[in-house]
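To illustrate the input format used throughout this study, we show a single complete record. The first block contains the structure-token representation of the backbone; no residue identities are included at this stage. The design step must infer an amino acid for every position from geometry alone.
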């Protein structure tokens, strides 16, 4: 499970004490709602399905997949489906390959989503071995599904934009700079990321 509302509040309050710009931003837009996803295979498969398409299109593909395999949350069902069947559900050739790779990693036991390494970087490394799961997808999974409190998706464009806005930068900081800036926010960087997305979507005056 992801970070709870209480955990987010506690982490953001701690950040606000050491970072006045966070305190000011919290006063403007308030606390974010939790972002929680189910732990396990289905969430990663949905991540693959949702890559580079709208939420509506991803939902349509998921419904077709349910009609095809019965229970798409069972990796054995997806592993048994043919590439042609998956493409008929709306999977591109590439996404079909990704979905089969994920199912095979899980069914073989090479990827044990119930027992990922405790070290965040090691957990990310385990996830990105799956075709179609890049660092960003792995970080989002660990933050939303496992509630790892110090995950920092510095490569996320919205995170970069909002860190720059919150801290008063004239231009969007680079991924490298965003990583450096957030070092002082450990161990609360996961809450900082969720707040950045919240700030991005809030109807607030520009910083």
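Output of the design step:
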């Amino acid at each position: 499970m992801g970070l709870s509302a209480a955990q987010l509040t506690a982490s953001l309050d701690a950040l606000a004490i050491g970072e006045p710009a966070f305190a000011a931003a919290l006063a403007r837009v308030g606390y974010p709602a939790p972002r929680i996803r189910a732990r396990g295979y289905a969430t990663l498969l949905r991540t693959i399905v949702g890559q580079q398409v709208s939420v509506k299109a991803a939902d349509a593909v998921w419904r077709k997949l349910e009609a095809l395999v019965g229970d798409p949350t069972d990796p054995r069902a997806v592993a048994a489906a043919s590439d042609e069947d998956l493409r008929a559900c709306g999977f591109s050739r590439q996404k079909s390959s990704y979905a089969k790779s994920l199912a095979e990693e899980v069914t073989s036991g090479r990827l044990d989503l119930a027992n990922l390494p405790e070290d965040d970087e090691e957990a990310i490394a385990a996830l990105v071995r799956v075709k179609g799961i890049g660092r960003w997808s792995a970080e989002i999974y660990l933050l939303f599904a496992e509630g790892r409190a110090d995950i920092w998706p510095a490569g996320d464009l919205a995170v970069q934009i909002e860190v720059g806005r919150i801290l008063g930068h004239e231009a969007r900081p680079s991924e490298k700079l965003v990583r450096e800036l957030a070092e002082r926010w450990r161990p609360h960087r996961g809450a900082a990321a969720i707040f950045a997305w919240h700030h991005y979507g809030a109807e607030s005056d520009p910083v």
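Structural context for interpreting the output: The chain has a mean pLDDT of 94. The domain at 41-133 is CATH 1.10.340.30 (Endonuclease III; domain 1).
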